[in-house]
Design brief:
Length: 505
């Protein structure tokens, strides 16, 4: 692996890269940054999740003249979610250079975007339709753009944006540098490259081998507002020794970490806005078992060297299959078994099918435990803790207090009270998690990305976007109950054999 310090990057940008926790460049980053810094046009063929935003982001940031208030860089992305994600990463890369970045996309009030454009951003990240809208209104002027990036070009082709892209590109000076990224290279994309690019260099990265053999994979279908209660119940029953919870946004990570602490877990979050010192401190605590749940975004978790993770929970399903494999690969290491559970909303089921085709492994559907089963799991943990403390026999003067209590109370009542005191009862800690939009069902009816087909995700999403080794409970609850009724309260017994159902895709 090549270190970022070897890639002729300015000290200012290197400082931002270090703050993000990156030291070694991925193959797509190494190839793209070297050629990009030389000003060459590039066709990058790589899957999402390989680090391509940083790959094109560093040459883009390096080229910006912060004294010039004109738009100098333009990134075209297929979806509002990707536009937000890209702009956040570019913001972090350009933080120390004070580069001004703005994302524009449909579903957001255009008046607000027009006002933001008057603040003279130097890099614009946008979806094709909204970019064209601003060009036609003359609220976005592109005559000073020196770098143009097309991200996920094949997805934009699938979504019918090819004419919009050609219109946008015709408004950008021919002298620009063009970087085009696509997982596949259909003829229509090749024709764009031939028409709009100057003898492009090709950086092609083979998709990583998808190995998930030691990991039991489950999915839970859930509406957004119920996801946190489901997560906490699963964790109460499965009792992960060391767990990572993945969230899609920084706000999500902060809220989840806070909520898990309210429910009695020792949880900390990491994302791109944290200082490098804070990030390292959290990781050190996690590795030394001082916290038992790490909550992270994909960007923050990239390149982490962590062993001993027993469970990975995808609170939000990732947008691409390689990110999924990257996430769940944190468990099931060194020959040990791991468990991965993905919470997915009905509209996002199409993404699940894509993941399964990529990993060549079916996930098993899981109906989460009821509140009663979750409390029972916690009660069993409390019982184990009391038993362990008794066996250690280092109770000292606590025996005197115990004897005093026994004179006035029944022994069974006292033990029950002790168990109740150390049991994490979810009803005692109401929490609030901001609802996030589901991933878009691209193309209208079900996800039609790479591979096509898959489960229907229930029609096109048209809403507005928001900016931004202990065993599983002694055999563990992994099962599917016969009924999904939330009123069912049959206990799991802490070791009820897993009853899962393979779904049909």
């Amino acid at each position: 692996m090549v270190k970022f310090t070897e890639l002729n990057i300015s000290e200012t940008t290197l400082k931002s890269v270090r703050r993000m926790g990156f030291e070694e460049a991925t193959p797509i980053q190494e190839g793209t940054i070297r050629l990009g810094m030389e000003g060459k046009d590039i066709i990058g063929q790589a899957q999402t999740g390989t680090g391509k935003t940083t790959a094109f982001g560093i040459p883009l940031i390096e080229k910006v003249d912060t004294r010039d208030g004109n738009v100098q860089g333009l990134v075209i992305a297929p979806t509002r979610e990707l536009a937000i994600q890209v702009s956040e990463e570019l913001y972090n890369l350009g933080k120390d250079k004070n580069v001004r970045i703005l994302s524009v996309f449909g579903g957001q009030e255009i008046g607000r975007q027009i006002r933001a454009l008057k603040n003279r951003p130097q890099i614009i990240v946008g979806t094709p339709g909204r970019l064209l809208d601003h060009i036609n209104r003359r609220t976005l002027k592109l005559e000073n753009v020196n770098t143009l990036v097309l991200d996920e070009a094949d997805e934009m082709l699938n979504m019918g944006f090819i004419e919009d892209i050609q219109s946008i590109m015709s408004n950008v000076p021919e002298s620009r540098q063009t970087l085009l990224f696509s997982a596949t290279m259909p003829d229509a994309i090749r024709r764009i490259a031939e028409k709009f690019m100057k003898t492009p260099e090709i950086v092609k990265i083979k998709s990583k081998e998808m190995t998930v053999e030691n990991i039991e994979q489950f999915f839970v279908k859930s509406v957004e507002r119920e996801k946190f209660d489901i997560l906490s119940r699963l964790m109460n029953v499965q009792q992960p020794e060391l767990a990572i919870v993945f969230g899609r946004t920084k706000r999500r990570v902060d809220e989840l970490a806070h909520a898990l602490n309210l429910r009695g877990y020792l949880a900390e979050g990491i994302h791109g806005d944290l200082s490098q010192a804070k990030r390292m401190s959290v990781l050190k605590q996690f590795k030394s078992n001082k916290i038992d749940v790490l909550v992270a975004t994909d960007v923050a978790a990239r390149g982490l060297d962590i062993s001993g993770v027993t469970h990975v929970y995808n609170f939000d399903i990732p947008q691409d299959p390689e990110s999924y494999v990257h996430r769940i690969g944190r468990t099931g290491r060194a020959g040990k078994k791991g468990v991965a559970v993905t919470l997915v909303t009905p509209r996002e089921m199409g993404y699940l099918a894509i993941v399964e085709r990529t990993t060549k492994k079916k996930m098993q559907e899981l109906i989460p435990p009821t509140a009663g089963e979750a409390v029972l799991g916690q009660q069993r943990v409390a019982m184990e803790q009391l038993q362990t403390m008794t066996e250690k026999n280092n109770l000292g003067n606590y025996r005197e207090f115990a004897a005093e209590l026994l004179e006035k109370n029944d022994a069974v009542d006292l033990v029950a009270a002790a168990l109740k005191t150390i049991t994490k009862d979810p009803e005692d800690a109401p929490v609030s998690i901001t609802e996030e939009r589901p991933l878009p069902s691209r193309g209208g009816g079900g996800y039609k990305g790479k591979g096509g087909g898959g489960r229907s995700s229930g029609g096109g999403y048209k809403g507005k976007s928001s900016t931004g080794g202990r065993p599983s409970g002694g055999g563990g609850y992994k099962g599917k109950r016969e009924s999904s009724s939330s009123s069912s309260s049959r206990p799991s017994g802490g070791g009820r054999p897993g009853r899962t159902r393979r779904h049909e895709s």
